[in-house]
Amino acid sequence: MHKYQSAFESLFTVNMGHKANERILIFSDLIREDEKISDDDRDRRIRLHETAVELSRFADKHYGSTFFVDFPSTLASGAEPPISLWSAVFGSSILDTLAASKLLHPLLQKSIDPASLKEAQSIVFAEKNSVADIIIALSNNSTSHTNFRKLACIAGARFASLPHFDPDMFATSMTVDWHALASRTSRLVDAVNRAEWVELNCPNGTTMNICKKGRRAEGDDGLLTAEGSFGNLPAGEAYMAPLEGESYGRMVVEWGPTSKLSSPLIITIKEGRVLSIEGDDPLRKRLEAKFSENQNCRNLAELGIGTNDKASRPDNVLEAEKILGTIHLALGDNTGFGGNTAAPFHEDYVFYQPTLTLIMPDGSKENIIDKGNLLI
Question: Contact 308/323 with Cβ under 8 angstroms?
Answer without folding.
Answer: yes
